[in-house]
């Protein structure tokens, strides 16, 4: 459960700085090394959240970390090693199939990206940029997003792979196919009793799976021009997310914290999943390369803060 981060540039013979070691230890709920399989990661992080969605809780899974550390691999995976998206949806349909006979359920999903602070629908990219609206109950809706209803995980896999091809990917010095946008897969499960009673009850569970864009310093990716601007937008929305996480994790503290969800589209969309009625998991990715020591350190600090958020579901 521990991650030990050792500064690669330390000289063991430097007597003056011998006591100033920058070795840091972080404790998490679960730590995986390079030998962990997709199955292991899924079972120990997401599996029990999916069971909650069937009973009407919301759940959110984040993949966070610098460029090139495997966020899209964890979430989408490959054909032979499917990632969290597919495994979660498989389990969701199995769980729904095992529910009581007198319950009708519908599963609808939408897949979108947030690129340079505008929202694009990945299942129907020709629809242009979409707006975030708040409805009368205070939940955030995206006007004009394509919702696909299906009961088959294989169908969804094809849609996701097709949607992922529409994602804004650009080569940077850190990664050849770097995702330059945040991708959000939103699955809504609605269940209602099919017995004809007057006070019909409904359960609605939402599952958000978010593949964040890579966070990195511009120096690392040698970004210029358009890439630089994208990087600024990516880091801006991740900073807004970080500010919300900071404010939420200090909530029980001495001063009352105002949580500014309106700083970016990403935090507005995820308002419920961060501070509201939701169980949330953040999977932080780090690279073992010594050149990305700073990025790894910032990622671990970020994830460590997120661990301190207490929500009342």
Automatic annotation (TrEMBL):
Q: Which domain of life is it from?
A: Eukaryota
- Specify whether Cytoplasm is a keyword of the entry: yes
What protein family is recorded?
A: Belongs to the TRAFAC class myosin-kinesin ATPase superfamily. Kinesin family.
Name used for this protein in its record: Kinesin-like protein
Q: Which InterPro entries match?
A: Kinesin-like_fam (IPR027640), Kinesin_motor_CS (IPR019821), Kinesin_motor_dom (IPR001752), Kinesin_motor_dom_sf (IPR036961), P-loop_NTPase (IPR027417)
Tell where it localizes.
Cytoplasm, Cytoskeleton
Annotated binding of ATP, by residue: 65-72
Q: Does the keyword Cytoplasm apply?
A: yes
The entry's keywords? ATP-binding, Coiled coil, Cytoplasm, Cytoskeleton, Microtubule, Motor protein, Nucleotide-binding
| Domain (Kinesin motor) ranges | 1-309
A biological-process GO annotation: microtubule-based movement
Entry-linked PANTHER family: CENTROMERE PROTEIN E, KINESIN-LIKE PROTEIN
Protein's organism: Pitta sordida
**Recorded GO CC terms:** microtubule
> Which is an annotated GO molecular function term of this record?
ATP binding
């Amino acid at each position: 459960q521990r991650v030990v981060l050792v500064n690669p540039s330390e000289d063991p013979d430097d007597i003056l700085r011998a006591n100033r070691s920058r070795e840091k230890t972080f404790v998490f709920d679960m730590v995986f090394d390079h030998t962990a399989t997709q199955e292991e990661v899924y079972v120990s992080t997401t599996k029990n959240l999916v069971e909650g969605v069937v009973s009407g809780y919301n759940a959110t899974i984040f993949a966070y970390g610098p460029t090139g550390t495997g966020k899209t691999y964890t979430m989408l995976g490959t054909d032979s090693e499917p990632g969290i998206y597919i495994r979660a949806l498989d389990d969701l349909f199995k769980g729904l199939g095992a529910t009581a006979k007198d319950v009708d359920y519908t599963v609808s999903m939408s897949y979108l990206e947030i690129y340079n602070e505008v929202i694009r629908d990945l299942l129907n990219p020709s629809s242009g940029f979409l707006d975030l609206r708040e409805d009368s109950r205070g939940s955030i809706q995206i006007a004009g997003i394509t919702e696909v209803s299906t009961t088959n995980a294989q169908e969804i896999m094809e849609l996701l792979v097709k949607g992922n091809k529409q994602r804004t990917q650009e080569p940077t010095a850190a990664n050849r196919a770097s995702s330059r946008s945040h991708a959000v897969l939103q699955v809504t499960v609605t269940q209602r009793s099919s017995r004809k009673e007057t006070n019909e009850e409904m359960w609605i569970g939402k599952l958000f799976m978010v593949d964040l864009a890579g966070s990195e310093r511009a120096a690392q990716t040698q970004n210029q021009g358009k890439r630089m601007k994208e990087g600024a937008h990516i880091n801006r929305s991740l900073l807004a997310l970080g500010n919300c996480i900071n404010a939420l994790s200090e909530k029980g503290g001495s001063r009352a914290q105002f949580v500014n969800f309106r700083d970016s589209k990403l935090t507005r969309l995820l308002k419920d999943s961060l501070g509201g009625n939701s169980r949330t998991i953040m999977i932080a990715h780090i690279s073992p390369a010594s050149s990305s020591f700073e990025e790894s350190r910032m990622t671990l600090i970020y994830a460590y803060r997120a661990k301190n958020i207490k929500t009342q579901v």
